[in-house]
Amino acid sequence: MRVFITGGTGFVGRNVAGTLLDQGHEATVLTRSAPSGPTSSSRVAYEEGDPRVAGTWQEKVAAHDAVINLAGASIFCRWTRAKKRVIRESRVETTKNVVDALAARKGKETILISASGAGYYGFREEEGIGEDASPGQDFLAMLSQDWETEALRAEQLGVRVVLCRLGVVLGKEGGALKKMVPAFRAGLGSPLAKGEQWFSWIHENDLARVFLFLLDREDVAGPVNCTAPHPVRNREMTKSLGQVLRRPTFLPSVPGPLLKLALGEFAQVFLKGQCAVPAKLLDLGFPFGFPTLGQALEDLLTG
Predict the structure, then answer these.
(1) Spans of all domains in the chain
(2) Most exposed: 11, 18, 109, 133, by fewest CB within 10 Å?
(3) 3-class DSSP assignment, residue 160
(4) CA 174, CA 203: separation in Å to the nearest integer?
(5) Could you tell me if 60 and 41 are in contact, meaning their C-beta atoms sit under 8 angstroms apart?
(6) What is the signed CA dihedral for 58, 60, 61, 63, rounded to 10 degrees?
């Protein structure tokens, strides 16, 4: 299968592209700056372009059987008005341009796997949130709804659209774990606020395998929670991370008001959460390699 990937040079995208190649697929990665030297595989190509802007890169999409849309600016920053605009445009405008490009494949069997976020559900306390739950009303929830709306336009072209609502992706080379580990290694790890907020997560390798799984499942469309089967509360996450790193976590909790002062509105990502579960994937029998947080952390930090 030939797969076109936006966001393929990012933390998640690199692992997804590598997994596709390992399974014998071909990949074209859209990037703002294509490598000038030889690449490591003849089955990966680079197309230069900015996915937020319509351009000649869109002409290449028609030659592919599927698109995996992962592009999006990091949300791990203080959310000024300008930053929110960048976060939004990097997702919504990119997806609009991808769907516009898919018009050239109308009438051909095509798949669009488009990233979204578990933040779609908003910040809530109830357990076991499946794909049929209602959306939230905060910034990330509204962003996810607009993001998904753009992706679903492709259904009018006969494209099978899968909306992957990602939890926090845990990996070795980037993402949230890389930001958390230094403090824990220094013995400064502690819960945030009361530590009761939910943490929905997924191991980077399981996520990449989910994308391949969904490419092959012609019977699957619409939203799919891409999270591990066992979300945890912040306090449990803190304890597990300390145990794997063999570091103490007995310091007092970080006060919520202090985080809000330092991070502004973005602090609610750490102070609140949602307990998203992969109901569809479990029903389909997807075999998670790392269903529990302890297993994932052991693999990522000691493997």
Answers:
(1) 2-170+202-228+277-289
(2) 109
(3) strand
(4) 12
(5) no
(6) 160
Residue 61's contacts (CB-CB under 8 Å, 6 or more residues apart) are 4, 67, 98, 101, 102, 104, 105
233 beta partners: 198
Helix 175-185 with 234-245: angle, nearest 10 deg:
60
- Give which of 23, 29, 121, 104 is closest to 71, Cα–Cα: 29
Q: Residue 219 corresponds to which tokens in the numbers above?
A: 């019977």
Query: For the purposes of burial, counting CB atoms within 10 Å of the CB of 78, is it exposed (0-12), middle (13-18) or buried (19 or more)?
Result: exposed
3-state secondary structure 23-73: CCCEEEEEECCCCCCCCCCCCEEEEECCCCCCCCCHHHHCCCCEEEECCCC
Q: Which fold has domain 2-170+202-228+277-289?
A: Rossmann fold (3.40.50)
Count CB neighbours of 243 within 10 A: 13
Residue type, 169: V
- In this structure, is the dihedral angle defined by the CA atoms of residues 125, 88, 32 and 22, taken in order, positive or negative? positive
pLDDT of 185 higher than 50: yes
Please give the model's pTM, rounded to 2 decimal places. Answer: 0.94
